[in-house]
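Try this one yourself first.
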């Protein structure tokens, strides 16, 4: 069986040029994941570290007050509300609700034992909307959503105890099975305290896990979808990394409690903010790198290379990590997406590839030979988020590869396209250096305008970010995750083409030269 090329070299992704003419040296990068330490740098220049696992007292007090109000609501009598509900839904559903409320009242200390209830099937959307609104107005501690009914024309309303606000219910495995593995769009408490920002921001520390895998695991434990989270950038899997993450309407105490169960992941430094994080909302990352097994013709070569790096810098290429660690480079998948070749893109994500563990290789080969989605999902490890998302949607929408690709979390899906953009940028950077070298600015080079520059600017950076809605989603085609890319304020500076006058005045140097990202 044919498999893809095992490794990607620099030349495969457009890296052809180097500033230093020294012979250089070789070494092993990331022999241990602890050899690569990444700390995010926020927009204010602060290096992100995990400093505390505790919930700040001011946050804990606000949450305690909110949960007392919920407990008071659960303890009261709802006889009049049940009668009003009877006129809206009928006797049988009123009896179901009454029994459910009795169970909530008597077992409120152990909400994990309370299973959701399904109300009678209905094809009347207006009536279902009225019932949803009734629950929102009268039962703040309950959550409703809509699931498929017994036939194509009907739907059922599902009622459960709000996992966001009372005893953390609704996140155990039995309830997930009760929901037939359908993602429940529980993004937080409906009775959120007014003085708290709607997003909980925390620092995520992880070892040897990529960002999507870590967030997916936290979301699974909380019983919420990955789309509830926001982050400024993905960090390397084979590393020890610390970054900021936001999650919509979750209490810090609930997230902090996960530290006892998480392995290789810690969360802390909690605070509430008004806005969630978007991709690109960072100045960069600070790296602490250890090289092992260094091979050089002399120690002087190592010292000379390090000195050259410090004095002259380097061409700021997108490195190999941008193109994935697997044998199928992510930029090839991005190119297929841009060409609209949905089936080809899905196949590249799913097909067998070299260099993977036996359990993954066998699962990929099994699907390639059998097209058995159920059997493949049973074999495929859960950390393969993109592969599992595609297969789960193909199971519901056979042959619809576009919808299957949309089921991949948006931040991960966009990485394929970003990878192809990076591939094109690398080639453009190499072409510029090959033609004009790295010693001087030439007419036509692009630079950011300096404040004292009165020359005509050629363009400005303008990006309209998508509007993020936290409304409910029901099908796999709408599982878009985090909104679009953020443009830092310093990147909104106007750009100009260098003129002969600029060169004669020495206003710009090679360090000022930039290249636009295609797309």
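Now uncover the answer:
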């Amino acid at each position: 069986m044919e498999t893809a090329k095992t490794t990607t070299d620099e030349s495969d992704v457009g890296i052809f040029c180097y500033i230093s003419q020294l012979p250089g040296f070789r070494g092993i990068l990331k022999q241990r994941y602890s050899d690569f330490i990444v700390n995010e740098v926020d927009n204010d220049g602060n290096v992100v570290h995990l400093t505390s696992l505790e919930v700040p007292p001011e946050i804990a007090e606000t949450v305690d007050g909110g949960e007392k109000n919920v407990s008071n609501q659960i303890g009261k009598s709802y006889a009049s509300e049940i009668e009003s509900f009877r006129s809206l839904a009928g006797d049988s559903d009123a009896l179901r609700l009454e029994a459910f409320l009795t169970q909530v009242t008597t077992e409120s200390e152990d909400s994990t034992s309370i299973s959701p209830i399904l109300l009678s099937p209905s094809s009347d959307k207006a009536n279902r909307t009225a019932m949803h609104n009734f629950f929102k107005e009268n039962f703040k501690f309950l959550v409703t959503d809509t699931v498929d009914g017994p036939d194509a024309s009907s739907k059922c309303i599902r009622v459960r105890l709000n996992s966001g606000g009372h005893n953390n219910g609704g996140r155990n495995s039995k309830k997930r099975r009760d929901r037939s593995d359908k993602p429940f769009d529980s993004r937080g408490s409906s009775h959120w305290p007014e003085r708290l920002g709607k997003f909980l921001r925390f620092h995520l520390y992880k070892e040897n896990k990529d960002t999507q895998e870590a967030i997916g695991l936290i979301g699974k434990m909380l019983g919420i979808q990955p789309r509830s989270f926001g982050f400024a950038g993905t960090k390397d899997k084979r590393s020890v990394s610390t970054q900021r993450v936001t999650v919509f309407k979750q209490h810090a105490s609930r997230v902090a409690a996960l530290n006892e169960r998480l392995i290789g992941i810690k969360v802390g430094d909690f605070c509430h903010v008004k806005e969630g994080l978007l991709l690109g909302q960072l100045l960069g990352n600070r790296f602490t790198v250890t090289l092992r097994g260094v091979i050089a013709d002399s120690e002087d070569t190592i010292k000379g290379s390090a000195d050259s790096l410090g004095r002259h810098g380097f061409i700021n290429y997108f490195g190999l990590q941008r193109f994935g660690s697997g044998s199928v480079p992510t930029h090839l998948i991005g190119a297929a997406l841009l060409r609209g070749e949905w089936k080809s893109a899905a196949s590249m994500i799913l097909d067998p590839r070299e260099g993977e563990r036996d359990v993954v290789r066998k699962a990929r080969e099994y699907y390639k030979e059998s097209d058995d989605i159920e059997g493949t999902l049973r074999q495929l490890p859960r950390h393969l988020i993109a592969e599992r998302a595609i297969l789960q949607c193909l199971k519901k929408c056979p042959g619809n590869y576009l919808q299957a690709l949309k089921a991949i979390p948006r931040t991960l899906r966009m990485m394929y396209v970003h990878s192809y953009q990076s591939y094109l940028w690398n080639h453009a950077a190499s072409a510029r250096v090959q033609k004009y070298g790295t010693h001087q600015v030439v007419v036509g080079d692009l630079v950011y305008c300096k404040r004292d520059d009165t020359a005509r600017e050629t363009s400005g950076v303008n990006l309209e970010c998508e509007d993020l809605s936290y409304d409910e989603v029901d099908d796999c085609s709408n599982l878009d995750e985090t909104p679009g890319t953020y443009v830092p304020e310093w990147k909104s500076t106007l750009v100009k083409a260098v003129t002969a006058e600029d060169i004669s005045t020495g206003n710009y140097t090679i360090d000022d030269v930039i290249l636009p990202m295609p797309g």
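Discussion: Residues 410-436 form the longest helix (27 residues). The chain is about 35% helix and 15% strand.
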